[in-house]
Every structure is written in structure tokens, then in C-alpha cells.
Design goal:
By secondary structure, this protein is mainly α. It folds into two domains: 27 residues, no CATH class; 90 residues. The termini are far apart. A two-stranded antiparallel ribbon has the order 1-2. It is built from one helix and two strands, in the order ββα. A hairpin with a 6-residue loop joins strand 1 and strand 2.
Length: 124
């Protein structure tokens, strides 16, 4: 929107970056005519409107981010519950395997002894 950066301001005697496009001299509050004031007012209103639009978009974006964050939190809580269930199932499975191994170690010799005994009874 602005042009010719670094123009010396006759009002403040310092370098000022605010020069309107199409205006031949620097914007000096003392030497501005009605047309320049209207242009400046229109630009300032446009800046204000754009800032309002940007703030509205930021509010929408923040709302969406909060919703997304709450969804992610719920998913994380569900995943934690599922993980705890899986760990419990694995623990129970490990216990069953331990019991089964013990049972096989105890029952296998007994079954072999019974087979030998039945074979001895049959072939005697």
C-alpha cells in the first residue's frame, strides 16, 4: 500500500516510511488536503477491516485446534485403556501357559507310566 520508503518528514524532520501511492509529497499532518485525508482514512479503514477478518479467522482456527486437541486427548485415553486391557490379557495368557507347562511336565510321565503298565498287562 505504501511507496517510497525513507522520505524525510517535514513535520518531524525524521525518516518516515508512510507515503501513499500516487501522492507526490510525504504525508504531513499539517499539509494534508481533504483528498489525501480521505485516502488515508480509506486505507486505515481497510487495515482495520482486514485485522477484524484476521482475528475472526484466528478465533475459528483456535476453536478448531481446541476441538482437535480434545479429540486427540480422548483417543489417547482410549488407547491407554486398550493398552491396559492388552497387558492384562498378556499377563493372564502367560499364567495359563505356565500352568499348562507344569501340567504337561506332571501328566506326561504319569501317562507314560500308565501306558507301560497297560502294555505289560496286555502282553504278559
Amino acid at each position: 500500500m505504501y511507496a517510497r520508503l525513507g522520505t524525510i518528514c517535514s513535520f518531524t524532520k525524521s525518516i518516515c516510511p508512510f507515503v501513499l501511492p500516487g501522492v507526490s509529497r510525504h504525508l504531513d499532518p499539517v499539509h494534508m488536503n481533504e483528498n489525501e485525508i480521505q485516502k488515508l482514512t480509506a486505507i486505515l479503514e481497510e487495515v482495520r477491516d482486514n485485522q477484524k477478518n484476521q482475528l475472526e479467522r484466528q478465533i475459528e482456527a483456535l476453536t478448531l485446534q481446541r476441538e482437535h486437541f480434545s479429540i486427540v486427548q480422548r483417543q489417547a485415553e482410549r488407547a491407554e485403556v486398550l493398552q491396559q486391557r492388552a497387558e492384562e490379557l498378556q499377563r493372564r495368557g502367560g499364567q495359563l501357559i505356565t500352568i499348562a507347562r507344569t501340567a504337561v511336565l506332571v501328566l506326561l510321565p504319569i501317562i507314560l507310566l500308565l501306558l507301560i503298565y497297560v502294555s505289560w498287562l496286555l502282553f504278559r
